Amino acid sequence: MLLEASSKTRVLVLCTGNSARSIMAEMLFSTIGKGYFDAVSAGSQPTGKVNPFAIAQIEKLSGDLVPRSKSWDEFSTSETDAIDVVVTVCGNAANETCPVFPGQPKHVHWGLPDPAAVTGEDSVKHAAFSNCFLFFKEAITDLVTELDNAENLDVYSAMSHIAKRFEPIDAKQQRGLNASA
After folding, report:
1. Annotated active-site positions, please?
2. Domain spans of the chain?
């Protein structure tokens, strides 16, 4: 999928609950990558509300963004704009059987531990959300830099290349270890 100057890559960021990781990634794609990406997010079992710690991170980008927790069913109808790339950000969503999304999208996995699963003091929870947010921010910033510096770059290949930095973190998560260990 080569990126043309006149078109944006439509990205669907998936997570189970659509309350934290996928919402933060959607907002980052929509702000940092706004020239390249049209981003939405959804969950297989959405919580129906955005985690307040995620909202605190999103507010760093812009006070104008209004995230909403939603089901992936919203994006699997024939009336929905075609999706180019599905980005899963949790192991559960990556391993679930997804609905058929319009456009025959490609898939890339950018898995991070769930900051909403962190327990303890608010400062510990805030740190977990901040770390997750900053990891996505760095990845999307690097992706945009690659796109800025290349002609006819294959967006999916670039996203897949960046996904490699998530693999060690996701492997720890799969083994049940804390990502900071």
Report:
1. 15, 90, 98
2. 9-174
